[in-house]
Amino acid sequence: MRKARFWSVSMLIPALLLAVVGCSSGTNGSPQGNSNGGSQGSGQKITIEYWHVNSNDWGGNEVKKIIDTFNETNENIQVVGKYIPNQYQGVIQQAQAAIAGGHPPDVAMMGYNYLSYVNGNLPYTPIMEVAAMDKEEPNFIQDNFLPNIVELSKADDGTIVGLSYGLSNPVLYYNADMLKEVGWDPDSPPKTWEEVMELSEKVRDQTGNYGLYIQEPPDNWAQYALVKSNGGDWQEGDGGNRKVVVDSPEVVEVYQMMGDMVKNKLAFHAKQEEGQQAFGNGKIAMLYTTIGRMKGIQEQSNFDLRTTTSPTFGNKPRSIPAGGNSLVVFTKDPDKQKAAWEFIKYLQSPEALTRWVEGTGYLPPREGVAEDPNGLKPFLESNPLMKAAIEQKDSTVQWANFPGENGLQAEQALIDARDQILNGTSSAQDAMTKAAERIRELLK
Fold first, then answer.
1. 129: closest CA among 347, 326, 328?
2. pLDDT of residue 96 exceeding 90
3. Domain 46-168+322-392 indexed as CATH 3.40.50.300
């Protein structure tokens, strides 16, 4: 497998969101042709398959419109969108099966936390090699994306796997009406996790509702934000000197807090869709999740919806992972690779990014789009829900990757530990100790 190297890596990316300010696509039929078949010949329409995670309540309609517009304006390329459930874990699992069967997706969204696994285990084509096939704009990536944004799509060995697309960070959505009801000033939302617990107690005692829901999709992104802000991490060190530290006091403290809040009926424990719906129905006061779900949450909420920055642990600095995805090319057919690149370029065009950002809440990865007075600038400046995500730009770090062929199992070990803690079947100390032992064994 050929790999390309690009800019050097920095785990901290303080300028992440300054300069650039996780549906059914409506095409549920089968692809028009073999997604990894041979060249279709000059002058014939090339059909490619695009896998994405956007359900109807998470930008799915916008994805369909983007695909439809591309297809309407391209005579030689037809894109078939395919929604993959179970988010990024679902994409990686289905991609493995499709690749084994000889029919991989041509281009797919891959969560940032799975890129090291893709790099070491799946036969993709590095995006710099795909971009090099473009004779008209050979420097498209270098000319339109800041190095730190490109590096979000970097694997543990420095390879740039795909092109960064979805950009988000976690914010605290809250029901201002419920805060008023329990005597909390909605103009001064919780700034720390201690205040979140205090408000949650008021909500439980005075309304019988839950104070908080922390997203629980099939990954550990939200939990990683809490851990990083408490001074912890999944691993320490670089390269072969990495040390697994998911059982450190800083990590255990976070998971014990979450478990205690669920046990004491301060926090709601459910799948993402259930938690988001319960918040929208006024049964939960605060929702901690990605700004990338802003549009759907806004549509579901019939109350004074507001956002604030990710809470901190006392005076410890806020440190939150950049969420989202990278566009990765899997087809090995040269004509399909060129077609996939043309579609990727369209996804990154100001026109498509404006529709994508307004329809989801994600932030644009391409430089200059956020500042365009004829594009996103009015939307970003006038939408108060986006303000918290923009304010957090200097606190954003890279989403952690578990490398190696057992990287997915290592990620799953953390998911299993989280569920045991929230289900009340294990203490945080026991669950994280066992998870650490399991991950160390997997990563040997």
1. 328
2. yes
3. no
